[in-house]
Amino acid sequence: MPESRCLQGIWSSPWIFIFAASGSAVGLGNIWKFPYVLGENGGGAFLVVYCLCLLLVGLPVLIAEVALGRTVRSNPIDTVNDLSERRIVHPAWVLVPWLAGITGFLILTFYSVIAGWSIAYLDRAITGGFDNITQVGASSMFNELLATPSEMLLWHSVFMVLVVLTVGQSVTRGLSAVVRILLPVLVVTLLLLACYSMMIGNMSEALNFMFRWSWQNITFDVVLAAVGLALFSLSVGMGAMFAYGAYMSKRMSIARACSIVVGVDLLVALLAGLVIFPLVFSFDIDVQADSSLTFVSLPIIFGNLLGGQFFAGVFFLLLVVAALTSAISMLELFVAWLHEKFYIARLKAALLMGMAVWFVGIAVLLSLNHWDSKLMFGLNLFELLDKFTSLILLPVGAILLSVLVAWFIPRPMLQNEMITKQANHFQWWYKTLKYISIPAMIVITLAGWIGV
Ligand code: TRP
């Protein structure tokens, strides 16, 4: 019997799921965010906690999302509607995929602005803009960009056009063509960059910083940052992986596929660290330099290196590509829903959603300069969206989705999905999700809110 498929088709080969999901996972979170969060949280200790979070929280939740997507083979909103029509779950659960879609939408509004900075830096890199740049010069270059809405608007628009054109194709075709080539290129190039950086930079201090374990450095904040980054980096909590799971062939073991995605995600984050830290230490730059690590420190380094212009070009190109394959997954939920529910052509649906994101994105980039008013809690729109999505919407989305799968979807339905001829990881996953991942996420999120 041919296997059931969803309206969007299924991935042309089981492996494409792994490429697409890894493409979604690997993004600004790995290359831009991971190194500076590692720096802020003291290196090696954070890394150990982060790996544990990936394994005990990220992986089980990722499996839950993908499995739920594959059971019904529809977009997340219709999947939950379908389950409630069959009286399997209460209709109120449909709020969860809606929340997930809105989270993706909101994340994309500022993700696209940051991706726009990456294109701006790609432009500077290839035109020799970093040549012999000093610390002062690099900071003022970044500040100047933030103070120039017209330039940010240009690159934000270019990025959104790329996103819309890719999502507008059927993901099972458009996206798979993109990720199949780009992901291996990204990993190999990062590997080469990391070797180069270790050769010319301060390798021993970098390795010592990244991998040295010390108990004293583990505080509650470190754990909180690690869980947040693990969820963000694996793209869970907003239905993107749920949608990708719907296109996955039944022949593939979900647990195995998801474990590979987690492995690739961690590998890329580590490689990004190995590119950045040897250079940071040899140039004596502060490792705690938050988001300016990528946009201020790296240009100084590249600008003063032999062949720096070429390596800077490659690095920022990679950053843009990684951001693109992630951004696509943030729009997929609503685009698939509009297509399946209202028969709107995918390109039209992508255009509609893309324009809405683009509009809000304009407000976001203006909040960095002309409209820098504090809206709430002393934060401007950019900061507010970042905090609101990563501290509230994503963890709440991840918790609700996991609770839905672990406690409300009938066990045999999941068992069917998880057990393949080649593998049976069901028990292990089910117990970890129920008794470790969900309680851990609840405790950590609540403690984070109360400000323990
Ligand atoms: N994982 C991506 C990154 O590391 C970002 C991302 C894509 C994401 N889709 C997501 C984050 C869904 C949260 C939810 O940059």
Topology:
Layout: H1 14-25, H2 28-40, H3 44-72, H4 76-85, H5 95-126, H6 135-146, H7 149-168, H8 171-200, H9 203-211, H10 220-233, H11 240-246, H12 254-282, H13 292-303, H14 308-342, H15 346-366, H16 381-408, H17 411-418, H18 426-450
The protein binds tryptophan.
Residues 24-25, 27-30, 104, 107, 232-233, 235, 237-238, 240, 326, 329-330, 394 line the site of tryptophan.
What does it look like?
The protein is built from 18 helices and no strands. By secondary structure, the protein is mostly helical. It has helices at 14-25, 28-40, 44-72, 76-85, 95-126, 135-146, 149-168, 171-200, 203-211, 220-233, 240-246, 254-282, 292-303, 308-342, 346-366, 381-408, 411-418, 426-450. Bound molecules: tryptophan. The site of tryptophan (TRP) has 18 residues, from α1, α2, α5, α10 and α14.
Number of strands: 0
Q: From N to C, what is the helix and strand string?
A: HHHHHHHHHHHHHHHHHH
Low-confidence stretches: none
Radius of gyration: 21 Å
Helices and strands: which structural class?
mainly alpha
Which percent range describes the beta-strand content?
A: under 5%
Q: How far is the first residue's CA from the last residue's CA?
A: 55 Å
The number of helical runs is 18
Average pLDDT number: 87
**Distinct ligands:** tryptophan
Biggest sheet details: none
Overall form: globular
Instruction: Please bin the fraction of helical residues.
Output: over 70%
